[in-house]
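User: My advisor asked me to double-check a structure prediction for Large ribosomal subunit protein bL31 before group meeting. I don't want to rely on an old file, so could you generate it fresh from this sequence?
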Amino acid sequence: MRKEIHPEYVECKVSCACGNTFMTRSNKSELRVDICSNCHPFFTGSEKIVDAAGRVEKFKKKYAMQ
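Assistant: Sure, here is a fresh prediction for Large ribosomal subunit protein bL31 from the sequence you gave:
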């Protein structure tokens, strides 16, 4: 590898809009994000399925899911 062409890899403090903070490593010393694993609907279980045409019920009926 060529020397002095790669960015420096440092400790990084990540701050989410929900107030959660954690440390990781990056080429920046601080990151601000809108959503993290503590507030993302997929990870928290509060994910809602928006179905306007009854597609979810049709799929469940077709494959006999309750």
